[in-house]
Amino acid sequence: MTVVDVFERTSGPYEDALTRYRASADRLALEPGVRSVLQHPRREMSVAVPLVRDDGRVEMLTGHRVQHNLARGPGKGGIRYSPLVDLNEIRALAMWMTWKCALLDIPYGGAKGGVTVDPSTCSADELERVTRNFVSGIGPIIGPDTDIPAPDVGTDERTMAWIMDAFSTTAGRAVPGVVTGKPLALGGSQGRVSATAHGVAHVADLALKHVGMNHGGVTVAVHGFGNVGAWTATLLHQAGHRVVAVADRFGAVWNGNGLDVPDLRRHVAETGSVFGYGKADPLPTADAVLGLEVDLLVPASVERIIHEGNVRQVRANVIVEGANGPITATAGDMLDDAGVLVVPDILANAGGVVVSYFEWVQAQQGLWWSADEVRSRLDARMTDVWRQVVERASADGTGLRAAAMDRAVARVAEACVARGLGH
Ligand SMILES: NC(=O)C1=CN([C@@H]2O[C@H](COP(=O)(O)OP(=O)(O)OC[C@H]3O[C@@H](n4cnc5c(N)ncnc54)[C@H](O)[C@@H]3O)[C@@H](O)[C@H]2O)C=CC1
Ligand SMILES: O=C(O)CCC(=O)C(=O)O
Predict the structure, then answer these.
(1) Is residue 386 within 8 Å of 206, Cβ to Cβ?
(2) Does residue 147 sit in the same domain as residue 265?
(3) Which is the catalytic residue, given 100, 112, 182, 209?
(4) What is the mean pLDDT of each run of 10 residues along the chain (423 residues)?
(5) What is the secondary structure of 19-64 as a DSSP string?
(6) Are residues 28 and 172 located together in one domain of the fold?
(7) Is the ipTM of this complex over 0.90?
(8) Is residue 405 part of a domain?
(9) Any idea where the Glutamate/phenylalanine/leucine/valine/L-tryptophan dehydrogenase C-terminal domain is (predicted)?
């Protein structure tokens, strides 16, 4: 089997990523050489990761790190801990990182990693050992100038601190630049924890204004209530919007008068889920939030939540993709045809990687910015790119996703060609 054949075996998210990439390559009339280069991950590593339980039992997990494209700079992208992680999913997420970094014009390529572990079944010590074993496996291909991980589903700043420590222990010196999303004590940036959500909320505001819904009290549903979903709900609530429903993997809750989001977050901190929150009604399934009649829907959980089977139930006017790949390629086309404004992931959730880049810039300068400074630089970058995408969509007569993809893919293609097709 040739290399190309191996990469042709896809899973759902990777199929979506390739479908959207190929559509963009067609629109841009990319030359066959560069077209083929951009379709293939540059480097992949899969490693066996022992999970040593607190009672000494050992379970073998699998971890991956995929670097999709490095033409514009070191690989950049999160590390996911989930039992559903698989190599093709990581390939898709790595490819999306390439386009996201290019669209936001930050000097990174695209990468992503993950381990097949359910963090909710592990103690902190078990997770620390998994993280250290994973880093010793992928250590040879990560580093401040080669590939810089960050948080994603199931990981957080504590995980980043362990990665930094494991990598530094091997190097024999502190290497804070090997990860972003670190705690402040290790050189993290103000505002990184909520940065993705700040970007989502900011772009949601721009999108609502774009469709003439800039009045207060917009109704909102959020699918996924982790870092991105819970912070987005908080910020939209603070902005005066009515967050009427939220879901996580255990269930969903609804209150037509608007949820008290800070109070709901306290419930989640105590119980681990939105499920069972007393000041709201339960919905039959988590996915029931997708069919609610709301102005704004924020899918902020995982890939392929809106698909051919449920897309016709969606009644929101505006969808802002907090998650990566939450809408399948086919369902996305159907939403475009139905006139729903969809702000694509590579723009909508880019706030996280933008502030990761700011973390790196601050560390380089040895100069730390205030939370307000980080926030205003983030807002400025997101507004700028939003305008570029809207202008291109209007000039090309396409939707926002096509415009964002075309801008990003063209930028990466140009870099690859300038390097003699290096990537
Ligand atoms: N953390 C970050 O800075 C960034 C995250 N993203 C993306 O945002 C999405 C969410 O990431 P995080 O909030 O960091 O993860 P997280 O692990 O903090 O939260 C994930 C949430 O989604 C829920 N969930 C998972 N599967 C679900 C399902 N099938 N149905 C309903 N709810 C489900 C979980 O219960 C949890 O509430 C992912 O697509 C991630 O790749 C994108 C950019 C940056
Ligand atoms: O902050 C980063 O470097 C990457 C965040 C990420 O994984 C993403 O944007 O999907």
Answers:
(1) yes
(2) no
(3) 112
(4) 45 94 98 96 98 98 98 98 96 98 98 97 98 98 97 98 97 95 96 97 97 86 98 97 97 98 98 96 97 98 96 97 97 96 98 97 91 98 98 97 98 96 78
(5) HHHHHHHHHHT--HHHHHHHHS-SEEEEEEEEEE-TTS-EEEEEEE
(6) yes
(7) yes
(8) no
(9) 189-420
Look at residues 339, 357, 389 and tell me which one is the last residue of a structural domain.
339
Query: Which CATH number fits the domain that encloses residue 301?
Result: 3.40.50.720
Ligand nearest to the CA of 303: 1
Which residues line ligand 2 at a C-beta cut-off of 6 Å? 76-78, 100, 150, 152, 180-181, 324, 349, 352-353, 356
Radius of gyration of the chain (CA): 20
Same domain, 67 and 154: yes
Distance 395 CA to ligand 1 centre (A): 34
Between CA 42 and CA 46 the distance in angstroms is: 14
Residue 196 near ligand 1, beta carbon < 6 Å: yes
Q: Tally Cβ neighbours within 10 Å of residue 12.
A: 16
Take residue 314 and report the two structure tokens written for it: 């969606």
Residue of the CA atom closest to atom 2 of ligand 2? 353
